[in-house]
Amino acid sequence: MHFLLEVRSETMTATTQSTNGHDRSALIPLLQQVQVEMGYVPKEAITEISKELRVSTSDIFGVLTFYAQFRLKPVGKHMVKICRGTACHVRGAPLIIDAVDDELGLTDGGDTTEDGEFTVEKVACFGACSLAPVMIVDEETKGNITPDQARRMIKKIVKEIAKKAEVANG
Amino acid sequence: MGSYSAIREWADKEVSQQTADKARIVIGLGTCGIAAGGNAILTAAKNTVANNDEIKAKVVSVGCIGICYKEPLLDIEIPGKPRLSYGPVTAGETKRILENVFINNEYEHKKALAVIGEDSFSDIPSWHEVPFFAPQERTVLRNCGFINPEKIEDYIANDGYAGLSRALLDMTPAQVVDETLKAGLRGRGGAGFPAGRKWNIAADNIRALRASQPELDSYGYVICNADEGDPGAFMNRSVLEGDPHSVIEGMTIAGYAIGASFGYIYCRAEYPLAIERLKLALDQAREKNLLGENILETDFSFDIKLKEGAGAFVCGEETALIASIEGLRGMPMPRPPYPAQSGLWGKPTIINNVETLNNVPVILAKGAEAWATKGTEKSKGTKTFALTGKVENTGLIEVELGMSLRKVIYEIGGGIPDGKEFKAAQTGGPSGGCLPKEQLDLPIDYEALAKAGSIMGSGGLVIMDESTCMVDVARYFLTFTQSESCGKCVPCRLGTKRMLEILTRITAGHGKIEDIALLEELAPSIRDSSLCGLGQSAPNPVLTTLKYFRDEYEAHILEGRCPAGQCKALITYSIDPATCTGCMVCMRACPTEAITGARKEIHVLDPELCTRCDTCRQVCKFDAVLVV
């Protein structure tokens, strides 16, 4: 992972505190950078960072699992983010979550579909409360959404995926 | 660049050049504006200008002005004419409005919201007269929506960095602390601890450390807590996106006051736009010698580094935030020692919220007395709120402390939509409480809110109407605090879990009447014995809903009924034969095929197949779907 070294030098020079050149406070920024590059934090990255910073892998695992931002598994090709902030909650976000989970068959608490096409993330708050409830599919933000519209957005992408697969298979 | 007057002169010149010769087309691109489609408006405006030689105007983006329910907004400012605000607009309307204004010289009065600045159109209100803005008092949001947040000259030309200049050149650090104390500025992050007192403790500790160990690189830190995590709150984000320099200036003044030479902004990673604008603002401030070595040609040096949070609500707690900056799991530590005694890397550290720091430059520039004319005796100044939920006008607002909830909800907020009845106002997010209509005349100040069982909090203000179930709201907040509990102390880790189990049981229709007593026993124990603010305040939503909406708990438990019609396990959907027209819309929309019927025949809903997803009720144009 060549990028790791570049990130490291940049992160390290910017911090003021370091002990013996091994800067613990660089850990979270490093993990964040890995996730930006790869979409998740793979096992190999943990080992490499462990050696670089002289922090044990179990310690890094502890940090990774503490913060909600970090993912240990790859994400789906399509990101569905549903806001469950207070304003969205009182304006019907639970119904949107149920509709999307049902549409994608995510009923056992998982967040990524088996085919690796979709990941559904329930976000604490987008801060777009005036548009509540809000759902973001890939780059498209949809405010004041209804369960029916949410299902349609998902169905549209599922259809596109099927079409692409058909073309690919001739 | 050297002295403040030289910098100010440069900024004034830049800004007057920007505005004098060219008209401006201003588009609000805060996160809310972007979510509402602001980028499409920006593109449409740019294309319209590029395609028409007659339109000589500059397209600029600004932060959020706060009137979210009218987003996306389009403002037109022509030299010598008032600034006119339109909204909400579509891309097509943008093109039409711009062409009409610039080519045909015709303002479209019908679509206009307000005139910003001097009023010159009799049929369009000045923005001070618009009910949403009229009762507001803008100190924190002084620049949001007006200046271009990506240009330091805009900030400086609006008295930016004047407070820092006064502090560094005319005052000693102790005088700066005194000024803040005199103003009576209290922490805007929620708890309301006087900022000056915090600074005083840190300054004393830093002085002592400097005397005992004269060779250290660093003696203390200023941290800006921008980890705004309450769901339903976006005040800090709007300030960071719309006026990033105000926070940088506030931090630098704080650094001078306590004797620190380094600061951190700990910002939520979920705020990419705020982070981007902060980075830019930091670079600009360094370039103008308003940050870095020998600021404004004085002996004082101070620099700031930006740290991104990684998605842990508990990191809003100051000791957990410090642990997170140090690269550890963000778990709180017992206090004392307080961070002002021993904080980041064991050094005296002050941690102030974004809004607290944003007020500091105003206090220094205008003086404590002028700043403190607003507010009540113990709660000075103004406070921003994210007004959301079941209210007509949603948005970011700022009011003088002491204003009644009623005025905020009914005058600024425009009341409850769809003719529904107000039920509760929720302040302080997961740490706060729900206040009923009997408390509507409560003045918004720290003490009054605490007395009513809630807290000021950071500024989330979610309005709930008769269709909101209060037991479900309590369950919602407990779901949040339970999943965000760091697990370090037992009362919070297990206590929130038990409370959540009980609330879930009640909303699922399996509650027992003893559950109420159990909640009343658990809540105070968790409040009194948890390690940090998260656990100590987690019972508040339960306690206030039990206090003010006990009948709803009892209806769930004793009658198996959810009065608001929200709890899925306790409601049944049916179709009213008297109003159903047999239009088949609900039938087609139903994902579980629970509705049967034919065209022009009354439809029937099978409660066994129904998943209570509410789709049929929402698509029905005749209100024929009944929920009992």
Automatic annotation (TrEMBL), chain B:
<feature type="domain" description="4Fe-4S ferredoxin-type">
    <location>
        <begin position="601"/>
        <end position="628"/>
    </location>
</feature>
<dbReference type="InterPro" id="IPR036249">
    <property type="entry name" value="Thioredoxin-like_sf"/>
</dbReference>
<keyword id="KW-0408">Iron</keyword>
<dbReference type="Pfam" id="PF00037">
    <property type="entry name" value="Fer4"/>
</dbReference>
<feature type="domain" description="4Fe-4S ferredoxin-type">
    <location>
        <begin position="571"/>
        <end position="600"/>
    </location>
</feature>
<dbReference type="InterPro" id="IPR037225">
    <property type="entry name" value="Nuo51_FMN-bd_sf"/>
</dbReference>
<dbReference type="InterPro" id="IPR019575">
    <property type="entry name" value="Nuop51_4Fe4S-bd"/>
</dbReference>
<comment type="similarity">
    <text>Belongs to the complex I 51 kDa subunit family.</text>
</comment>
<dbReference type="InterPro" id="IPR037207">
    <property type="entry name" value="Nuop51_4Fe4S-bd_sf"/>
</dbReference>
<protein>
    <submittedName>
        <fullName>NADH-quinone oxidoreductase subunit NuoF</fullName>
    </submittedName>
</protein>
<dbReference type="GO" id="GO:0046872">
    <property type="term" value="F:metal ion binding"/>
</dbReference>
<dbReference type="GO" id="GO:0010181">
    <property type="term" value="F:FMN binding"/>
</dbReference>
<dbReference type="InterPro" id="IPR019554">
    <property type="entry name" value="Soluble_ligand-bd"/>
</dbReference>
<keyword id="KW-0004">4Fe-4S</keyword>
<dbReference type="InterPro" id="IPR017896">
    <property type="entry name" value="4Fe4S_Fe-S-bd"/>
</dbReference>
<keyword id="KW-0411">Iron-sulfur</keyword>
<dbReference type="GO" id="GO:0051539">
    <property type="term" value="F:4 iron, 4 sulfur cluster binding"/>
</dbReference>
<dbReference type="Pfam" id="PF10589">
    <property type="entry name" value="NADH_4Fe-4S"/>
</dbReference>
<dbReference type="InterPro" id="IPR011538">
    <property type="entry name" value="Nuo51_FMN-bd"/>
</dbReference>
<dbReference type="Pfam" id="PF01512">
    <property type="entry name" value="Complex1_51K"/>
</dbReference>
<dbReference type="Pfam" id="PF10531">
    <property type="entry name" value="SLBB"/>
</dbReference>
<dbReference type="InterPro" id="IPR001949">
    <property type="entry name" value="NADH-UbQ_OxRdtase_51kDa_CS"/>
</dbReference>
<dbReference type="GO" id="GO:0008137">
    <property type="term" value="F:NADH dehydrogenase (ubiquinone) activity"/>
</dbReference>
<keyword id="KW-0479">Metal-binding</keyword>
<dbReference type="InterPro" id="IPR017900">
    <property type="entry name" value="4Fe4S_Fe_S_CS"/>
</dbReference>
